Amino acid sequence: MTDHDVAARLATEAGELLLKVRVEFADAESKERKAAGDKRSHDFLMAALAKERPGDAVLSEEGADDKVRLTSDRVWIIDPLDGTREFSELGREDWAVHVALWERGELVAGAVALPAQGVTLATPDVPAPAASPVPPRIVVSRTRPPAVALAVRDALGGTLVEMGSAGAKVASVVQGVTDVYVHSGGQYEWDSAAPIAVARAAGLYTSRIDGSPLIYNQDDVLLPDLIVCRPELADAVLAVTTA
């Protein structure tokens, strides 16, 4: 089984587990539903990766950061439940599971499962989004759209689309539902590794907001800003974010 297959299968299976947790904790407090989802998905993915790829290191949002990853050739970067708030709100679909593989400096495989949508986007073959309508659609957080995204909206004459998790936002650009995702502040490597791998496979433009590359498996896992957009919009977006 290839690394692409492992990423896709584990993200999908973790998502199926989370759907069951949602049902099991349907009558519980939202904080209990969040905690159960985070723990069970994390435990499942850690056990599955230990079995499927026992020699690889793992960086998980829900686990202790084992610095052995810094001297490892292969590191799985996972977010067992991206968008815990949306997951806890029964009926919402904008949450995800991220499974990515970093190898010798590069993201080489990745999968983003959108369990409530019944969709998993996975490398190596991710269809490019269909032609974009005008004006561009800028996907932003439901609660705290960053100023840079509003500036991009204004410069491009675009419209805003509110959505939950980072994985769901990047997936929306991949799926052609939106055209630009610009974020600044408050993200870590696990928030974007798998989504970026998938976006690149779809032929989308990806970078930091200053135009520099997104680099993973660093000692400091804070990776607070990014751009994911249709390639034909990259110059216009960068003109705003680097001004």
UniProtKB/TrEMBL annotation:
Q: Which reaction does it catalyse?
A: adenosine 3',5'-bisphosphate + H2O = AMP + phosphate
Statement: the UniProt record of this protein carries the keyword Iron-sulfur: no
**Superkingdom, taxonomy of origin:** Bacteria
Q: Which InterPro entries match?
A: CysQ/Inositol_MonoPase (IPR050725), Inositol_monoP_metal-BS (IPR020583), Inositol_monophosphatase-like (IPR000760)
What CDD domains is this protein classified in?
CysQ (cd01638)
Pfam families the record matches: Inositol_P
* Coiled-coil regions, chain positions: none
Q: Which UniProt keywords apply?
A: Magnesium, Metal-binding
Is the keyword Metal-binding in the record? yes
Q: What's the protein here called?
A: 3'(2'),5-bisphosphonucleoside 3'(2')-phosphohydrolase
The organism encoding this protein is: Mycolicibacterium arenosum
